[in-house]
Write a sequence for this structure.
């Protein structure tokens, strides 16, 4: 309302100014003794300017009337009296009016053309912006999200895009809305508010569809307002672009999934090949020793008998460990089965792992260094126990026979840091970088030590599935330290890099 | 000597168990399926049952429930290593202990001895006082002494220790301990239970890797190992 008042005031001001200028000039002409034609031409000019500036014919006519009355009153004889309008005045006034109206019509046409051009430019700019968003999108969902956000702000109505068939049992939507949205998806035409036959809908539904396939629906919450033709045209072109983006992203996602599948298959094949090689050696040992004992028992010394039997159970245990590791690997690799995160006390997990290895520690001394406060870490306890078992077992096998193995855990910021340290031995420098790689075996020829690479790569896979990191280094004073960090809260917090850990070296040490 | 019922469908393992148990002086009965197992249990009232959960005819859990319905004969279940959920379910359904295949015979024999001993001593428990090596728990006074010195426990720690000592040698699941001590289901994935247990262990001076009193089975629960 106030805007109309302000516009009228502004127009009145313009008219007043033109009036003053026109009359003043006309007064000047009169003083100079010029004929009335000059003044009248000037008045026509004033009316033209008034119409263009005020954007309306009536203001121009009003100005013309004012000019004419004043001119009659001041300059036409007799002065200071309004003559009864003569023929000339009527014609003059008529011309003024025609000039004003023609000019107003012309201005309006021009303005509307400018308006159309501007609207087109805006629409184009918005389309460009939306398509830029679509090009950047990396998933079909992201494409829809970015479009719906842009549409909401451009149309001034909430717009949501859902991929796939709408839920038939959406508790938030009325029956009519659900029906309309399903019909839109199934039939591929627009339904809902503003379309005949959907009296109870507040939303307009447009299919997000290519020629042969409907990917989802666009729901525009227009409420009482209607979607005008421009908005509809705009919506249609945006939807067409979104469909292209959705199709492109779907294709890319499929390609990525295929790549992953191929990679996984390749991994499985390599694993299978490596495992069957690793399994055959201890199996050969078991078979050979068992047959030897079965056939030639009477010819073998009792002490040798014991050795053969020990070797059988040693090989069997190795096979059993191998199966544990393979099962852990399967657990971590199987994305369909989530890890079983439980709030485990580190004492329990470390204790269980160390206890598991108690019988085969040989000459090694294994000690534990646990935090003073009870430290609880969300983890899949079985898998982290497996990591610790593998690391300790690795230390038993690869450090000097009388080395001291220490297992520790400490809180470090928002992470729990676990360490398995030995003090004699160490790792060949060229192995440090690739020790967690798949199937790296330090000494493949020695059967007792084969398969370790699998163990360490499983450690890495398990720790990373927990959102943690693992690393290894040689200690300056001898031996090696394996360390892994697990987040204390299971969210997507990134693990600190290995360098961050160095600062806590003393405290942990 | 004690009689042991072996319920196992694999003949190799059955034979191995028979040989090993007889060498230890036990008498054995064998069942290759659940139906035979139930009838042998009825007919012979064995002192202990080794129960493989994967049977050809009946569900092992069903056999377990049937046996439990008829008495408190100690049951040690034999399970595959991967099936933690099954182990926990079997323990919650009344099994005393479990052994994962492949198992070491020495370990199985040790578990059998513990189960038999505790079953025998269960009826003859000393009124009001549990005592294991240097650990003494007075139930009426609610006091605990270790190596002659008093140990100060919170009420929950005390109840936890008491529950553990009432079930020596048995694998106790988180759920069992939670119900016994807190009397309501856990709302925090047994975090409170685990923390209380860790604190109790520290007060008892127990090292987790070679515990004198409380051993952990990650993913399963705890067992009281004090002798």
């Amino acid at each position: 309302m106030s805007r109309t008042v302000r516009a009228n005031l502004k127009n009145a001001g313009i008219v007043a100014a033109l009036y003053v200028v026109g009359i003043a000039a006309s007064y000047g002409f009169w003083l100079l003794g010029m004929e009335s034609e000059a003044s009248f031409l000037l008045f026509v000019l004033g009316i033209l300017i008034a119409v263009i500036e005020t954007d309306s014919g009536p203001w121009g006519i009003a100005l013309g009337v004012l000019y004419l009355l004043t001119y009659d009153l001041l300059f036409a004889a007799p002065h200071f009296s309004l003559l009864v309008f003569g023929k000339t005045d009527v014609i003059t006034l008529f011309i003024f009016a025609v000039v004003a109206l023609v000019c107003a019509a012309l201005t309006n046409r021009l303005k509307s053309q400018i308006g159309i051009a501007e609207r087109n430019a805006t629409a184009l700019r918005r389309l460009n912006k939306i398509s830029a968003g679509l090009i950047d999108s990396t998933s079909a969902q992201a494409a829809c999200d970015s479009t719906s956000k842009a549409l909401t702000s451009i149309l001034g109505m909430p717009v949501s895009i859902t991929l796939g068939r709408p839920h038939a049992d959406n508790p938030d939507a009325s029956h009519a809305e659900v029906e309309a949205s399903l019909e839109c998806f199934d039939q591929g035409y627009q339904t809902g508010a503003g379309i005949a036959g959907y009296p109870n809908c507040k939303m307009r539904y447009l299919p997000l569809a290519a020629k042969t396939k409907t990917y989802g629906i666009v729901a525009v919450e227009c409420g009482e307002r209607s979607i005008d033709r421009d908005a509809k045209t705009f919506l249609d072109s945006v939807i067409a672009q979104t469909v292209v983006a959705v199709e492109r992203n779907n294709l890319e996602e499929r390609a990525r999934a295929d790549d992953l599948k191929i990679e996984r298959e390749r991994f499985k094949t390599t694993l299978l090949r490596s495992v069957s090689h690793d399994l055959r050696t201890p199996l050969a040992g078991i078979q050979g020793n068992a047959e030897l004992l079965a056939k030639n028992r009477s010819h073998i010394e009792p002490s040798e008998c014991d050795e053969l039997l020990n070797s059988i159970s040693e090989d069997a245990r190795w096979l059993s460990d191998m199966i544990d590791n393979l099962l852990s690997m399967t657990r971590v690799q199987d994305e369909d089965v989530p890890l079983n995160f439980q709030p485990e006390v580190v004492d329990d997990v470390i204790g269980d792992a160390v206890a598991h290895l108690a019988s085969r520690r040989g000459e090694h001394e294994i000690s534990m260094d646990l935090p003073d406060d009870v430290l609880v870490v969300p983890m899949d306890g079985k898998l982290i126990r497996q990591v610790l078992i593998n690391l300790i077992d690795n230390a038993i096998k690869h450090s000097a026979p009388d080395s001291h193995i220490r297992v520790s855990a400490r809180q470090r910021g928002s992470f729990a840091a676990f360490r398995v340290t030995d003090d004699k031995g160490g790792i060949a420098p060229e192995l440090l970088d690739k020790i967690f790689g798949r199937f790296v075996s330090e000494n493949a020829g020695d059967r007792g030590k084969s398969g370790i690479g699998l163990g360490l790569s499983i450690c890495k896979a398990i720790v990373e599935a927990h959102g943690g990191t693992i690393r290894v280094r040689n200690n300056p004073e001898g031996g090696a330290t394996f360390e892994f960090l697990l987040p204390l809260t299971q969210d997507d917090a990134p693990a600190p890099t290995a360098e961050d850990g160095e600062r806590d070296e003393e405290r942990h040490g | 000597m004690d009689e042991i019922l072996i319920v196992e469908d694999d003949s190799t393992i059955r034979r191995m168990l028979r040989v090993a148990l007889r060498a230890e002086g036990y008498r054995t009965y064998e069942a290759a399926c659940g139906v035979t197992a139930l009838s042998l249990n009825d007919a012979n009232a064995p002192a202990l049952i080794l129960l493989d959960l994967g049977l050809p005819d009946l569900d092992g859990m069903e056999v377990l429930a049937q046996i439990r319905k008829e008495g408190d004969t100690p049951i040690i279940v034999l399970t595959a290593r991967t099936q933690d959920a099954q182990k926990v379910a079997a323990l919650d359904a009344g099994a005393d202990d479990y052994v994962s295949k492949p198992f070491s015979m020495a370990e199985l024999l040790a578990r059998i001895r513990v189960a038999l001993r505790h079953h025998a001593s269960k009826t003859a428990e000393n009124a009001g006082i549990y005592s294991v090596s240097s650990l003494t728990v007075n139930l009426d006074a609610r006091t605990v002494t270790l190596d002659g010195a008093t140990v100060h426990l919170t009420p929950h720690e005390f109840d936890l220790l008491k529950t553990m000592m009432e079930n020596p040698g048995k694998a106790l699941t988180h759920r069992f301990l939670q119900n016994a001590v807190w009397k309501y289901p856990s709302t925090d994935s047994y975090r409170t239970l685990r923390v209380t247990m860790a604190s109790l262990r520290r007060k008892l001076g127990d090292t987790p890797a070679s515990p004198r009193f409380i051993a952990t089975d990650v993913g399963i629960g705890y067992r009281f190992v004090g002798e």
User: Anything to note?
Assistant: Residues 229-296 of chain A form the longest helix (68 residues). Chain A touches chain B through 27 residues (CB under 8 Å).
